[in-house]
Amino acid sequence: MLIDKLLLKIRERYRFTEEEERQLRAAMVETAKFKAGEIIVPEDQEVSFSSLLVDGFACRTKYLKDGERQIMEIDVPGDFVDLHSYPLERLDHSVTALTPCTIAKLPHKKITELIRSNPRLARILWFATMIDASIHREWLISIANRSALERLAHLFCEIYHRLRVVELTDGLSYRFPLTQSELGEALGLTAVHISRTLKQLREMKLVTFHHRVVNIMDLERLKEVAGFDPAYLFLEPRTG
Amino acid sequence: MLIDKLLLKIRERYRFTEEEERQLRAAMVETAKFKAGEIIVPEDQEVSFSSLLVDGFACRTKYLKDGERQIMEIDVPGDFVDLHSYPLERLDHSVTALTPCTIAKLPHKKITELIRSNPRLARILWFATMIDASIHREWLISIANRSALERLAHLFCEIYHRLRVVELTDGLSYRFPLTQSELGEALGLTAVHISRTLKQLREMKLVTFHHRVVNIMDLERLKEVAGFDPAYLFLEPRTG
DNA sequence: CGCCTCATTGACCTAGTTCAATTTGGGTGG
DNA sequence: CCACCCAAATTGAACTAGGTCAATGAGGCG
To answer: Which residues 10-49 of chain B have a CB within 8 Å of chain A?
Structure first.
């Protein structure tokens, strides 16, 4: 089903009733498909629905004057790529497909109805957007304070933990379909330096990244090198 | 009154009824004071209320292994320093007073009641937390892509625009009580380099920063140097 | 087979760091 | 009112992580 990955994430944290699941399912309307590289949600345009990523990888990006772009977050299946467009009404950035993507639409009107009929859902959806903010903060730490080696290790840890919740890992391995140049755009490094740093991680027997597949060889040591603490992902069950 | 600065911000964007203002006022309970340097909200602890900054400057920080810290956002009067603790229940970072601060408390239970009785408030409060996320994204751009000169110029522009809404600017001048070392912690630079860069900005006749007062000498050129576009602050009126 | 994107490697360069020494200036006690 | 203190700011000199430029290799696919 369309929103299964999302439900995996919600169930991990909330006691979600069947009725609530039904309500959420019923609110999703049509789906859409995008090719790799296509813009799913353009910057600065009024949006009237939010997009749930059902399949594929996407990212939040800002384009800079010099033609460069910064990737500000990676979206994996089960993520709302732009739930924040509900309160914001327009985005300050674009959402771009990294691979072919399928999304399901949740109209903002339906969100308003959902919240009215069940205020607890407001807190759950709000929570989902706050995870993104928390990820932004952690990336800020990475880019401002961690070395290239640490940053790359940290990203591999983050994506590993996020994909595991939606059952898209295979042991310590997972598909992560970014080019080295895109990794660079996410981490504030050049593609050249990503290449050198990946080599280092390989030689240290921590991770390999080949053919868009991440293979973690030593998770404990990788976390240690990265200074990775999953607390910022808020994966534990909630009380509310 | 306690929440006047907050109301200035909300009224800038929403048609806020007297009844709504009254509801919000009534929900605020006691106030508290903090000395400069004190922790207002500690990391990783359950929180049962959110704090509105009434007076003073605060910041969101994470402490790193090596004793360093990263400032991830500057809070000015009228900002909720931890409204996101309502959906998150605990914070992934601390909130620290940069100057003596007064805060007013809004209990999470009251937020739940407010939202129940007036679902539009959910969207307004949610919106407030999404501005913070947007600021995080812009800081990510700064740290990943802008030079020291551009970063500093950008920060001065941001704070200018945010303080203007709450009427804490005096023409092109405003009190900004951070040390150069704290500026460094916010921008991912060393205090030494901040000093050199401030000198450059002074010599370029763009801004001065002396005795904790920012004096913008040429706003247009400063924005240009910074590549500053206030869109990410969402200061325009909302339709919702 | 040949093309095109992606990855790798080498040589050199630079923005910002590090370390260390002064200077400045506001606050405080005698 | 002066002497002292201490945090903050400034400046110089040497260093380094990562960038830039440019050439080469390696798949994958029409």
So the answer is: 44
Contact of A203 with A100, CB cutoff 8 Å: no
Does pTM surpass 0.90?
yes
The candidate with the shortest Cα–Cα distance to B110, out of B7, B225, B171, B24, is: B24
Contact A239 B119 (CB under 8 A): no
- Average confidence (pLDDT) per 10 residues, chain A, 240 residues: 90 93 94 96 97 98 92 98 98 97 97 94 97 98 98 98 97 97 98 98 97 97 98 91
The CA-based angle A25-B122-A116, given to 5 degrees, is 45
Q: Taking 70 as the threshold, does the pLDDT of residue B240 lie above it?
A: no
Strands (E), chain A: 31-34, 39-41, 49-55, 58-63, 69-75, 94-97, 101-107, 169-170, 173-175, 207-210, 213-216
Q: Evaluate whether B85 touches B41 at the Cβ level (below 8 Å).
A: yes
Interface test with A, best of B62, B136, B142, B190 (most A CBs within 10 A): B136
Distance CA B195, CA B184 (A): 9
Closest CA to A143 of B219, B99, B146: B146
Strand order in the sheet with B173-175: B169-170, B173-175, B213-216, B207-210
pLDDT, mean of residues B116-135 = 96
Kindly identify which residue of chain A lies nearest to residue B65, measuring between CA atoms: A227
Read off the pLDDT band of B192 (50, 70, 90). Answer: very high
Write down the pLDDT at residue B97. 97
What is the spatial distance between Cα B146 and Cα B156, in angstroms, rounded to a whole number? 14
- With a CB cutoff of 8 Å and minimum separation 6, the contacts of A48 are A107, A108, A109
Q: What is the structure's pLDDT at A240?
A: 67
Mutation pick from A64, A88, A129, A140 vs chain B, by most beta carbons of B within 10 Å, is: A140
**Chain A residues 58-97 within an 8 A CB cutoff of chain B:** 60, 62, 64-65, 68, 70, 72, 84, 86-89, 92-93
C-beta of residue B84 within 8 angstroms of C-beta of residue B38: no
Closest by CA position to B174, among listed B199, B203, B208 = B208
Query: Of A145, A227, A231, which is closest to B92 when you measure between CB atoms?
Result: A231
Residue A150 in contact with partner chain B when CB distance is under 8 A: no
Q: What is the pLDDT of residues A5-40, one digit of tens each?
A: 999 999 999 999 999 999 999 999 999 999 999 999
pLDDT digits (tens, 9 = 90+) for B75-85: 999 999 999 99
Q: Which of residues 154-183 of A touch B (CB under 8 A)?
A: none
Is any Cβ of chain B less than 8 angstroms from the Cβ of A235? Answer: no
The residues, any chain, with a CB within 8 Å of residue A32's CB and separated by 6 or more, are A51, A102, A103, A105
